[in-house]
From TrEMBL:
Pathway: Amine and polyamine biosynthesis; betaine biosynthesis via glycine pathway; betaine from glycine: step 3/3
Record-annotated Methyltransferase type domain positions: 68-166
Record keywords, A-Z: Methyltransferase, S-adenosyl-L-methionine, Transferase
Gene3D superfamilies: Vaccinia Virus protein VP39
InterPro entries for the chain: Erg6_SMT_methyltransf, Methyltransf_11, SAM-dependent_MTases_sf
Disulfide bond in keyword set: no
Pfam families: Methyltransf_11 (PF08241)
PANTHER family: GERANYL DIPHOSPHATE 2-C-METHYLTRANSFERASE, ZGC:194242
GO biological process, one term: glycine betaine biosynthetic process from glycine
Alphabetized CDD domains for the sequence: AdoMet_MTases
GO molecular function terms attached to this record: dimethylglycine N-methyltransferase activity
Protein name, entry field: Methyltransferase type 11 domain-containing protein
Family: Belongs to the methyltransferase superfamily.
Length: 276
C-alpha cells in the first residue's frame, strides 16, 4: 500500500546519505532514541541503553514471547529485547536505509532469525490481531499526522492484558504550537502531541494507562549532547554529509535544547495495558 505524505516526509528525513551519516555516527550507532543521562557528558550510547533498561523494568508479565517494535530504527531495541526477554521481535520501520543497516547488525550478532525487520508503517502493521505480548516504540510517533492510528494498531496486535511501552518527544500540555516553529521545522513536522493527548487517545483505543513517567529533564540534555557531538565530529561527518545538512541540523538541535529548557517540550515513558 502506498505511503501517506507524512510517511514519505518521515522516510525522507532518515533515508538520505546525510541522515545516515548523522544518525549512525552521532547517536551511538545502534540506537537513535533519547537517553537518560547519569552525567551531562555521558556518552549518548550509554544513556540510550539506560532508557531501554528503565523501560523494560516496567514490564509486569511473567513471560514475553513475541514483541512488536514500532519505528525500530537500527534495531538496537529489538536486539536488546530479544536478549533480555528471549522473545521473537517484529521490527516495523519505514526507512529502507535504516532497515538495511538493521539487518546487517542483526546478522552480525546472529539474530536475523528471532528478529524480523519489515519495511512498513506503524500505521498499518503487518501482523495479525492479538499476537503480541508486548508492543514497544521509542521516539517514533512524532512523525504521525494522526497519532491515534499507531496507538490503535498497537492495541490491535496486542493480546488482551498485553503491555505497550513507548516514548515520544512531545509538546508540554497547554503549549501553543506557534511557540514550537523552530522545533517542528527540524524534522518537517506539523505538530507534536502532548502527554494529555496520548492519555486521551490511549483510552479511546482500549488501553488502561498504567503510568506516565515524566522525564522532561533529559530532553534538553540529550539534544544538547547530540549537538555537542555533532560540533565535535563535524570534520569527520563532512566526509559523508553535506555542510548544508549539518548547519541545518545544528540549528534545529539548538531549537530543541532551548525549547526544552523553557519547559515547552515534554518526554517520558508511557506504560499502557490492553484491557480485556
Amino acid at each position: 500500500m502506498p505511503y501517506k505524505e507524512s510517511e514519505r516526509v518521515a522516510q525522507a528525513a532518515y533515508d538520505s546519505q546525510d541522515a545516515g551519516a548523522f544518525y549512525s555516527q552521532i547517536w551511538g550507532g545502534d540506537d537513535i532514541h533519547l537517553g537518560m543521562y547519569a552525567s551531562p557528558d555521558e556518552p549518548i550510547a550509554e544513556a540510550s541503553h539506560r532508557t531501554m533498561q528503565h523501560m523494560i523494568d516496567k514490564i509486569t508479565q511473567g513471560s514475553v514471547d513475541y514483541v512488536v517494535d514500532l519505528g525500530s530504527g537500527y534495531c538496537g531495541a529489538a536486539r536488546f529485547l530479544h536478549r533480555e526477554l528471549d522473545a521473537d521481535v517484529l521490527a516495523v520501520n519505514l526507512s529502507g536505509e535504516q532497515n538495511v543497516r538493521a539487518r546487517q547488525l542483526n546478522q552480525r550478532d546472529g539474530l536475523d532469525e528471532p528478529i524480523t525487520v519489515v519495511d512498513a508503517s506503524y500505521n498499518e502493521v503487518p501482523a495479525e490481531d492479538a499476537v503480541a505480548d508486548l508492543v514497544w516504540s521509542q521516539d517514533a510517533f512524532l512523525h504521525a499526522i494522526d497519532r491515534k492510528q499507531p496507538l490503535a494498531e498497537a492495541a490491535r496486535v496486542l493480546k488482551p492484558g498485553g503491555e505497550f511501552l513507548f516514548t515520544d518527544p512531545m509538546a508540554a500540555d497547554g503549549v501553543n504550537p506557534a511557540e514550537l516553529s523552530g522545533v517542528l521545522a527540524r524534522l518537517n513536522l506539523s505538530s507534536l502531541a502532548s502527554p494529555g493527548d496520548y492519555k486521551q487517545l490511549a483510552a479511546e483505543v482500549g488501553f488502561e494507562v498504567v503510568e506516565f513517567e515524566d522525564l522532561n529533564e533529559y530532553l534538553p540534555l540529550h539534544y544538547g549532547r547530540v549537538l555537542e557531538e555533532t560540533q565535535a565530529n563535524a570534520e569527520e561527518l563532512l566526509k559523508t554529509a553535506s555542510q548544508q545538512y549539518l548547519d541545518g541540523m545544528m540549528k534545529g538541535l539548538q531549537h530543541w535544547v532551548d525549547a526544552g529548557n523553557r519547559g515547552l517540550l515534554s518526554w517520558g515513558i508511557f506504560h499502557l495495558r490492553k484491557q480485556g
